[in-house]
């Protein structure tokens, strides 16, 4: 049996908040692996700004050579909204001996009451919540809470900074920034 952390997200683009929460969960919960699961259609927000192919490429680069970080594209091959309930059911079916931990930021912990089939979902998977500035970790649901350093970083903030031609150095991995510049993602001027 393996202990596997799951980090679902839009990753539009991936940033150090994603990587540090995955690393923290890996270390604190003694996980064997963390699987990053890019969503096709996020259930509760607008579609991603860039294509699934570009998000996948950025994620691969962000993870780099860390051998316990993997990408699982299960939601990209499924049509319709990327509900976690459907994803967990499929993962449990194909990996019956493994134990899954779904890692979420405090914004998503607050939002848990609105998740699709949440009462069934909490019976299927162990949620793990990490701090995020401006959000609470109080929840009536069974969530393992990790006392991590809160990083006030979001993909929205990165996109806005890129659009304004402001620096995002140290907020995302250097190689991800190079790819964003090379492909002209997020509409920033190429001179930055
Ligand atoms: N800085 C952060 N601290 C804690 N959790 C985070 C942070 N950034 C993202 N997360 C969590 O990572 C998961 C995936 O997030 P997502 O890819 O949507 O990033 P985001 O920064 O929230 O994006 P956006 O700004 O586009 O909404 C979610 O569970 C989210 O709560
Ligand atoms: O299944 C749901 O109803 C649901 C509602 C909100 C968020 N999620 C999942 O939580 C993860 C983080 O969401 P997001 O929108 O911050 O990328 C991602 O895997 C989403 O599919 C899932």
UniProtKB/TrEMBL annotation:
Broad class of enzyme this protein falls into: transferase
Domain of life (superkingdom): Bacteria
Protein name stated in the entry: Probable nicotinate-nucleotide adenylyltransferase
SUPFAM superfamilies per UniProt: Nucleotidylyl transferase
Family recorded in the similarity comment: Belongs to the NadD family.
Function: Catalyzes the reversible adenylation of nicotinate mononucleotide (NaMN) to nicotinic acid adenine dinucleotide (NaAD).
Alphabetized InterPro entries for the sequence: Cyt_trans-like, NadD/NMNAT, Rossmann-like_a/b/a_fold
Record carries keyword Transferase: yes
Pathway, per record: Cofactor biosynthesis; NAD(+) biosynthesis; deamido-NAD(+) from nicotinate D-ribonucleotide: step 1/1
UniProt GO MF annotations: nucleotidyltransferase activity
Reactions performed catalytically: nicotinate beta-D-ribonucleotide + ATP + H(+) = deamido-NAD(+) + diphosphate
CDD domains: NMNAT
Keyword terms: ATP-binding, NAD, Nucleotide-binding, Nucleotidyltransferase, Pyridine nucleotide biosynthesis, Transferase
Gene designation per UniProt: nadD
EC number annotated for this UniProt entry: 2.7.7.18
Domain Cytidyltransferase-like stretches: 6-161
Organism: Amphibacillus indicireducens
């Amino acid at each position: 049996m393996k202990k596997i952390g799951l980090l679902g997200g839009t990753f539009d683009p991936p940033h150090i908040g994603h990587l540090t929460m995955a690393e923290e969960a890996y270390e604190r919960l003694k996980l064997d692996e963390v699987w990053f699961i890019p969503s096709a259609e996020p259930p509760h927000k607008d579609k991603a700004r860039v294509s699934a192919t570009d998000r996948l490429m950025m994620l691969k680069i962000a993870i780099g050579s860390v051998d316990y970080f993997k990408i699982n594209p299960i939601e990209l091959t499924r049509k319709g909204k990327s509900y976690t309930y459907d994803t967990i059911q499929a993962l449990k079916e194909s990996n019956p001996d493994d134990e899954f931990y779904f890692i979420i930021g405090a914004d998503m912990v607050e939002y848990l009451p609105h998740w699709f089939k949440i009462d069934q979902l909490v019976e299927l998977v162990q949620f793990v919540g990490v701090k995020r500035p401006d959000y609470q970790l109080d929840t009536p649901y069974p969530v393992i809470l990790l006392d991590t350093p809160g990083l006030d970083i979001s993909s929205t903030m990165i996109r806005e900074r890129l659009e304004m031609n402001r620096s995002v150095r140290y907020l995302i991995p250097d190689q991800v920034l190079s790819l964003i510049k090379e492909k002209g993602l997020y509409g920033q001027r190429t001179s930055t």
